[in-house]
Design goal:
The complex is a heterodimer of chains A (about 300) and B (about 290). Chain A is α/β, with parallel strands linked by helices. Chain A has eleven helices and 14 strands. Chain A folds into two domains: about 210 residues, Rossmann fold, CATH 3.40.50; about 60 residues, 2-Layer Sandwich (Alpha-Beta Plaits). In chain A, a hairpin with a 2-residue loop joins β1 and β2. Chain A starts with 11 loop residues before the first strand and ends in a 6-residue tail after the last helix. In chain B, α2 packs antiparallel against α5, α2 runs parallel beside α7 and α8 packs antiparallel against α11. The longest helix of chain B has about 35 residues. The radius of gyration of chain B is 22 Å and the shape is elongated. Classes of the chains: A alpha/beta (about 300), B mainly alpha (about 290). Chains A and B meet through β6 and α3 of A and α1, α6 and α7 of B.
């Protein structure tokens, strides 16, 4: 049975993590926690500090400040890495070796039996082209080989950095399906992306990073804001005054001729009854759903991904 | 580290450049030290002397030439395997070893494969020393193959000349194998260090070869008689590689005795060992400390 949620110690936890390159701050005071069994989206525009953070979690880059624990171990420690599979940025392999031989090399490094190579090749649907040289692979095949290498150890934690970067729409869809497949069950996935749709489709929880700082962390629904009701009502200005005075309504505004209420959507029936009793003509009432893009733009002050 | 060693050996074995460089080195040794040398020595025309030279003098000149030719041929026979082959290591083997060392590390930076390797499990020191150990095994095999190819060439030449076949003493052969291995190791270590510092294959090979050629070969071979300049040679890796290799050239080469090296073989070997250790430790330290970006 999958063990998820905050009751269990996080698989990844950072505290005040930071990285400076000379006068440039790549990441600062970063506090994130990734829980067992979830698919955690690390969302941010290009250059936000996502890759630097993942490199710090893997021990490739040493933090300038703060601490991090991955599977309870120091980042990059052989014991911790035993349970971690990773694909950082573009997949990097030996061009003169075939896909299969590249995985054989990696299997030797991580000390897994050779049979595992065939298993992961099947898992990423690359078995048919496994004997081709890596340099002849398409980008999509290279990405799949990267995921295969990350899966060799059958890791508890899978760290994938922009795995759909540069892929065509079909390649992206295939990769997302693969991520959902490998992230199924007890495996935890930490997925960095600058694609809102990808995060929305794949992730359980999201951390938004911008200019090296974590802006927010929560479920996708929490990030979208979840709360709110849209009401088409006449006359709208008087209705806004009444609605604003209701208990539990934090804000009442008019947008595009609609009354927008910042409140618990479960109170829709109660609000409708009150407006009708006040003889307002209510023709439509529905939960206000903010897109992740809207939420992101709001968080980053209008900067797009 | 055994896991890393296995992975590194697999990579080196399947890498075309390892085979190409090894074969070039073997071909050069067989071609220059034996095939060309034998062709030149055996095809020397009879001496041209004026017609009015007395017959006795003509005969004396012919005998002198035959004697010289015989001495030069003897140098190519199996008994002189060590003295013929070992001096080639600093001149021809060193650049090959430097390129192998630079490729082993520099290519990983070029292909950005260190990030893939280091996220597997072994740890940085295990990866680094596994790589060095695998490189050392390849160099050891290369030295053995070199002596085998040279031995085969010298055996064929002795057979062509109907000369008796004698081999160097086992102790001398072992010392020559060790010296050859040490000379290749120091230059491979320099290649590894340069590639680690520069994170590049091409630049490290370029700088290594320029250093070897300009500094160690051209400058130190200038006819400068200044004592400080001559003494300084004793502290440089290329010079000590030559001193160590030349210590096997005690015999006369075709009638000409090479000059004795200014330092003896044990001292040259110690200097080379110190350089190899320094290069390796420095490279390991940098590799362990530096971010993989």
């Amino acid at each position: 049975m999958t063990e998820r949620g905050p009751r269990h110690p996080p698989l990844v936890e950072t505290s005040g993590l930071g990285k400076r390159y000379g006068s440039i701050t790549a990441v600062q005071d970063l506090n994130i926690s990734v829980r067992r069994g979830e698919v955690y989206g690390f969302l941010g525009p290009n250059g936000a500090g996502k890759t630097t953070t993942l490199r710090m979690l893997l021990g490739l880059v040493k933090p300038s400040s703060g601490t991090a624990k991955v599977l309870g171990e120091e980042p990059g420690s052989p014991h911790g890495l035993q349970g971690v599979g990773a694909l950082v940025e573009s997949p990097a392999f030996y061009p003169y070796l075939s896909g299969r031989d590249n995985l054989r090399v990696m299997a030797r490094y991580c000390g897994v039996p050779r049979q595992r190579v065939a298993e992961v090749l099947m898992q990423v649907e690359l078995a048919g082209r496994a004997n081709d040289k890596f340099r002849k692979y398409s980008l999509g095949m290279k990405q799949r080989l990267g995921v295969a290498a990350a899966l060799l150890k059958d890791p508890e934690l899978l760290i994938l950095d922009e795995p759909t970067n540069g892929l065509d729409p079909k390649g992206m869809a295939d990769m997302r399906a693969l991520i959902r497949r490998v992230g199924h069950g007890e495996r935890t996935v930490l997925l960095s992306s600058h694609l809102l749709g990808e995060v929305e489709q794949v992730c359980d929880r999201v951390g938004v990073i911008h200019k090296g700082e974590l802006l927010t962390e929560g479920t996708v629904d929490e990030l979208r804001g979840g709360g709110g009701i849209l009401v088409k009502v006449e006359p709208v200005e008087e209705a806004r005054r009444i609605a604003a005075s209701l208990a539990g309504v934090r804000r009442a505004e008019i947008e595009d001729g609609m009354l927008v209420l910042d409140t618990d959507p479960n109170r829709a029936a109660e609000i409708n009854a009150r407006l009708v009793s006040e003889r307002f003509r209510v023709s439509e009432l529905r939960p206000a759903e903010r897109s992740l893009e809207d939420a992101f733009l709001e968080l980053t002050g209008g900067e797009t991904v | 580290m055994l896991a890393s060693l296995g992975a590194e050996l697999l990579k080196l074995r399947m890498r075309p450049s390892t085979w190409v460089l090894g074969l070039i080195w073997l071909a050069v040794i067989v071609l220059l030290n034996y095939t060309l040398a034998y062709t030149l020595v055996s095809s020397v025309p009879p001496p041209t002397v004026p017609e009015d030279t007395p017959k006795a003098q003509k005969e004396q000149l012919r005998e002198q030439q035959e004697e010289l030719q015989e001495q030069q041929l003897e140098f190519l026979y199996p008994e002189n395997l060590v003295s013929n082959l070992t001096p080639g290591f600093p001149n021809l083997g060193a650049p090959i070893a430097l390129i192998l060392g630079a490729l082993a590390v520099g290519s990983e930076y070029g292909w950005t494969t260190f990030k893939t390797v280091l996220t597997q499990r072994p740890g940085r020191y295990a990866v680094f020393f596994g790589k060095l150990l695998a490189l050392g095994i390849v160099l050891a095999l290369l030295v053995l193959l070199t002596f085998t190819a040279a031995a085969a060439s010298s055996y064929v030449i002795a057979g062509l000349e109907d000369a008796p076949v004698g081999w160097p003493a086992a102790g001398e052969l072992a010392r020559a194998l060790g010296a050859g291995g040490l000379i290749l190791a120091i230059w491979a270590a320099l290649g590894v260090l340069l590639a680690t510092l520069l994170r590049s294959t091409a630049l490290s090979i370029g700088i290594g070869l320029v250093y070897s050629l300009v500094f160690e070969t051209i400058i130190f071979n200038l006819p400068i008689q200044n004592k400080a300049f001559r003494d300084a040679r004793e502290f440089f890796p290329g010079q000590n590689s030559s001193f160590l290799a030349d210590s096997f050239s005690e015999q006369s080469q075709g009638g000409f005795a090479p000059p004795q090296p200014p330092v003896d073989a044990p001292q040259a070997a110690l200097v080379l060992l110190a350089y190899a250790a320094t290069f390796i430790l420095l490279a390991a330290f940098v590799f362990h400390r530096r971010d993989v970006t």
